[in-house]
Amino acid sequence: MLIDLKAQALAGVYAAGERVLVAVSELASAPELVRAAKRLADALKAPWTALHAETRRAAGLAPAERQRLADTLALATSLGAATATIPAQSVVEGLTAYATDARATQIVIGKSRRSRWFELRHGSVVDHLVREIEGVAIHVLPTPADVSLAGSTPRAARIGTEPDASATQYARAAALVALTTAIGVLLGHALGVQGVDLLYLLPVMAAASRGGLWPGLLAGVLSALAFNFFFLPPIYTFTIANPQNAVTLLVLLAVAFATSQLAARVRAQADLAQTSARQNAALAGFARQLGAIATEAELAQALAGECARLFDAHALFLSPRDGTLAIVAAVPPETRINDVARAAAEWVVDRAQPAGRGSDTLPAADWLFVPVMAGTQARAVLGLSREDGRDPVRADRRATLSALAEQAGLALARIRSEADLGRVARLEERDRLRAALLASVGHDLRTPLTTILGAAREIAGRGHDPVADALHGETLRLQRFVTNLLDMARVEAGALRLNSEPVDLTDAVASAAADARTALAGHAIALDVPPDLPLVRADPQLLHHCLLNLLDNAGKFAAPGTPIGIRAARTPGGIALSVEDEGPGLPPGHESRVWDTFAKFKGSDRERNGSGLGLAIVRGFAEAMGFTVTAANRNDVQGARFTLIAPEDLIVRASTPARAA
Amino acid sequence: MSLAPKILIVDDEPAIRRLLARALERSDYRVVEAADGREALNALAIDKPDLVLLDLGLPDRDGLELLPIMVKVGGPAVLVVSARDATTEKVAALDLGADDFVTKPFDSEELLARIRASLRRRAAAANDACVVDLGEVSIDLVARQVTRGRMPVHLTPKEWGVLAALAAHPGRVVTHTQLLRTVWGTAHEADIEYLRVVMRALRQKLESTATPDLLRNEPGVGYRLCQPAAGPARVDRND
């Protein structure tokens, strides 16, 4: 599969083979490059990688620059890029090697802001790239000067490129030259002057490669002097008779210079590779450790322990609990923080940015706090400090700290989402149990009710016995009560299972009116449902119960002989379905209270027989379906109007299917 | 004059069985009782009832499993009785061929009315009914003609299909799925909007807007054909 893809990508016909590579540096303009690469990758629907080619320069970066580089790489990660840091001789070499390996098709780099002079000497990165890699589109973006300048900081002393040119190195250089001179004197008559000057290359190269530039130059100067003094006529003077010998001196110095540069470069490369390897090993080990962790407390302990070990510092893991930051893990365990430090830590959680010692915010504090991010939010804080009061994390190791915190953040996000899943499963189980319990209680109540109802009817049917009639009537009431109670329990327990489908309100109203006919005996039912009303998404059973309860309620309060109306109408906010009665109406100002559970308006006309649940059930069912309910007094005649409103999004668009007719 | 219809009561509650048996016997039906699925199948084979009152919550098996065994050509009409008021269960029972569905607690008068309607439908089916008289509206299943107040009503093929499917069993609930499958085919058995549109057209052609109770909607379950004067439809033999 992979081979296949590559082959097609080479053939240049497979668009899906696009791969974007963005070269990032410590410059302040780098985040802009990353965003540009993200836009390009999105447009191409291509995977993308942010690459940092770690050259000799990288070791000499100031702390702020290192931080910016780490931030840029983190930004790329958060935008969906893969990130890579590779040790390389030069940016061009690193980019070329990586682009070839990764089969990048698009490279995004910033316009170099180095001087013309520098580019004349070293060539521009762009020119090199264009020459070196074929078949790759190279996007060069201008870097805004102001950003770059504002962000530039004094270069720190180079670390690692030059070994300390100690006195020993200089002494060794001098000794080598002395030794060479001795050998030269011994072999002088055999070699001749021209042979001896070549001998002096050895001490110069040895001193330059072992000791660096200055011992090398010293060796070069000493060699030139010794050669002049001991071998060039006039011997035992520093006079140079022949101008050709001045050239010998210059060559020796040049060799010293070149050798020391070359050796230093190799050494720097080796140092960088070693440092990267150490950091990668530490990170990889930590990542493996995180994989096995299942709780936040374990994660906190692991992160604090790892940081304390790597940075030889005190470490804390703080997590927000009940509105404050609690210490979840501390290494050593008795470590505590004062209120000032705690305030800094809280700031870190709020802003999701590092604060404290060695950072931009509160740099004088004892502690350095970095956020542990899960997604875009800081979910916890990692704190580091040292007893001796030095910076807890050396500037050049801030990137390692960031990487550790980032990995911990990913693990934290995983742990939290696993916990959420578990909670959802438990909730679902609880809902299932509730629904099962209700079904069982419902069954157990209905079965004896059926028997009692049947028996009561039979006794009542035998003749006109007021006691038997009362028994039958009360049993019917009990039946309604039980039905209502079970319905209400289903609403309250959240055990309503919606079976929504497109419902024709004509159908719904007709069947409700037909079923309510007994309850509404003595009232005419006026139906007003426009025939062109669109269908509404609803659970037909719940809607039916809503309408039945509203009609039942209207039947209770409507004055005898008055009509009860059911109206449906298209309104600006959706479809309104109303049940209207000509009864005493609702207490003005408290109309909506009628929907509350057990609201029966003590002392008013509304206080009639009934469980006080009917309308609460209507509201519960309606809201479960996404409907809203309103209650109001009618303005045409005395009476109440109860309305169910189906919002726009529940209306089924009138797309009369051609096949329907 | 043949013997009175025989009814099999399948219910695990002795009190309910006693109650039903008394009500049925008073209405001159012959009654057989079964307390679980095994007894029900035995009674089905031995007593050959005309109608079964089947409780779905049986101790030894789900009543829904018994339905396909009971419902077959010439078999008894099955009236499902359940304490569970679940639409899905109703639909499942009707789709499996149950004739009607009654939810506990039920009124015994209403149950007797449903039993009478069921038995009448069964008798009518055996007699190849052709004209369904619904008062103002009359449906001739053979001539494929519908009249309202003696005036012919023009129906589209889909409208006729739905009405004919309902008229084949007047008073019996035909589920949405059954109607969609019969008229539109299995590929469309979930497209309930089609059915809603056709039902609305049928209502406009056959019912008066003020009292729409010829085509009765059973919320979430299906439709049935109903006589305007309440009560089951009368079926005439076409002879």
Features of this protein?
heterodimer, A: 661 residues, alpha/beta, five-stranded parallel sheet, five-stranded antiparallel sheet, 17 strands, 15% strand, disordered N terminus, B: 239 residues, 13 strands, globular, disordered C terminus
* Overall geometry of chain B: globular
Low-confidence region ranges of chain A:
1-15, 146-163, 602-608
Order of helices and strands of chain B: EHEHEHEHEHEEEEHEHHEEE
Report the mean per-residue pLDDT of chain B as an integer. 83
Q: Would you tell me the structural class of the helices and strands of chain A?
A: alpha/beta
Radius of gyration of chain B: 18 Å
Number of helices of chain B: 8
Helical percentage of chain B: 25-40%
Strand content of chain A: 15-25%
For the residues shown, what is the average pLDDT of chain A? 79
Number of β-strand runs of chain B: 13
Structural classification of chain B: alpha/beta
Q: Spatial order of the strands in the main sheet of chain A? A: 3-2-1-4-5
Instruction: Give the assembly state of these chains.
Output: heterodimer
Q: Total helix count of chain A?
A: 20
> Any idea what the shape of chain A is?
elongated
Instruction: Please give the radius of gyration of chain A in angstroms.
Output: 43 Å
